[in-house]
């Protein structure tokens, strides 16, 4: 079994896509997305938490409303957004259930979110003070459990936070904590227990606790079962801790998984442009991709599974071959799509294709700079002191400028 043969991608007419759409192209599977959502939901049900959990899938790691469409109709699922533009785009696509984790923002933006009545996790005492002063409909807070540079009220500020709430005679609606990506399941359960202590001590009347994302995904594993986070064990241990630590039954538990439910819903199909080039320095397989299509692989040192296909899209499997780096199509010295090298089987040439698996999260969006912030304007100051606007700032939907309002069928 190869990584490709275990994937939903092996059942897809890749030839049709390559012929009609061209390469490089990201391909997403609705079926796999639904399967991942169902798996997470079932794990919660099996642990007896079914009624208590809500999932808000972050928009920014994939940012495509068509691909995230199943979230519109599934009970207990919604979307996590961070920018007003994301919210407006998703509303236009018929999404209705949101939470907001905006980072640090202006008073105007906080008031905007308050007007939407979406639970909004404020990231500092100063921002909470604004919401209290403007009588926001509900107050939710993000806590930085790592006491790091991440937005969030620090542990050392929790006394002050509860004093502030008391001053306005308000209660916290929900508290969010980001457990950090790359943590082990044990570490994540420890953070859960820490948050339960915080809940009991400072906010015992809160309606919910939001454990955010960071649920791991193994990009090196071949089999689906080995790739995913062990939600069953996690929820069992969470349920056990909640009971042991006396968390009231009506307190909801929220989660914001991205990688675990999105990564293996996507694949990147590229053309191989030449036979492997071997020099005294290295061997490279030249593709029409670019590291800018998925910079997270290099940035996070993620060695995704790959496969090579012949011109009829049959997988080329051959132990004979050569180890080579996967080169993108630009002059940039380090335009390599993946960290390290991959096995390029004998038979790969300029008529072949290459796929990189598990590119459903933090890949196509990275090409759009991931956080969906439009590009800044450029002004040129001339020698005589006059100034000209030479690039207009991107508008609110700049990051989605080629997004289609309606899906267009791919067919021959
Ligand atoms: C607030 C928040 N929630 C959820 C996530 C998703 O994390 P993951 O992909 O680790 O599940 C992120 C990732 O940056 C985040 O910042």
UniProtKB/TrEMBL annotation:
Keywords: Pyridoxal phosphate. GO terms for biological process: lysine biosynthetic process via diaminopimelate. GO terms for molecular function: diaminopimelate decarboxylase activity. Its cofactor is pyridoxal 5'-phosphate. The keyword Transport does not apply. This is Diaminopimelate decarboxylase. It comes from Streptomyces luteolifulvus. It comes from the Bacteria. InterPro entries: Ala_racemase/Decarboxylase_C, PLP-binding_barrel. The keyword Protein biosynthesis does not apply.
């Amino acid at each position: 079994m190869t990584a490709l043969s275990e994937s939903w991608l092996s059942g897809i007419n890749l030839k049709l896509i390559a012929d009609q759409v061209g390469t490089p192209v990201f391909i997403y599977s609705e079926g796999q997305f639904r399967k991942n959502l169902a798996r997470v939901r079932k794990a919660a049900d099996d642990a007896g938490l079914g009624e208590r959990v809500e999932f808000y899938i972050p928009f920014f790691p994939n940012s495509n409303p068509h691909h995230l469409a199943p979230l519109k109709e599934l009970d207990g699922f919604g979307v996590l957004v961070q920018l007003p533009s994301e919210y407006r785009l998703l509303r236009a696509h018929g999404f209705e259930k949101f939470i907001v984790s905006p980072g640090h923002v202006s008073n105007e933006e906080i008031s905007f979110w308050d007007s939407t009545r979406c639970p909004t996790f404020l990231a500092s005492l100063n921002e909470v003070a604004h919401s209290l002063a403007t009588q926001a409909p509900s107050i939710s807070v993000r806590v930085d459990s790592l006491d790091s540079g991440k937005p969030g009220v620090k542990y050392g500020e929790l006394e002050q936070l509860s004093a502030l709430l008391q001053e306005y005679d308000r209660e916290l609606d929900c508290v969010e904590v980001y457990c950090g990506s790359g943590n082990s399941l044990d570490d994540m359960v420890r953070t859960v227990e820490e948050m339960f202590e915080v809940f009991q001590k400072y906010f015992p009347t809160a309606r919910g606790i939001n454990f955010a994302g960071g649920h791991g995904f193994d990009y090196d594993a071949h089999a689906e079962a080995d790739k995913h986070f062990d939600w069953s064990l996690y929820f069992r241990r969470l349920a056990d801790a909640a009971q042991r630590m006396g968390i009231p039954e009506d307190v909801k538990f929220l989660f914001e998984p991205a990688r675990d439910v999105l990564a293996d819903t996507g694949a990147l199909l590229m053309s191989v442009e030449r036979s492997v080039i071997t020099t005294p320095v290295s061997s490279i397989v030249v593709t029409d991709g670019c590291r800018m299509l998925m910079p997270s692989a290099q940035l996070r040192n993620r060695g995704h599974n790959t496969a090579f296909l012949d011109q009829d899209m049959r997988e080329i499997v051959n132990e004979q071959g050569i180890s080579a780096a996967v080169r993108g199509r630009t002059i940039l010295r380090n335009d390599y799509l993946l960290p390290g090298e991959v096995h390029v089987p004998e038979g790969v040439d300029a008529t072949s294709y290459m796929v990189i698996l598990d590119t459903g999260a933090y890949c196509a969006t990275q090409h759009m700079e991931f956080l969906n912030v439009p590009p800044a304007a450029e002004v040129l100051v001339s020698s005589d002191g006059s100034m000209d606007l030479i690039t207009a700032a991107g508008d609110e939907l700049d990051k989605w400028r080629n997004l289609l309002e309606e899906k267009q069928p791919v067919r021959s």
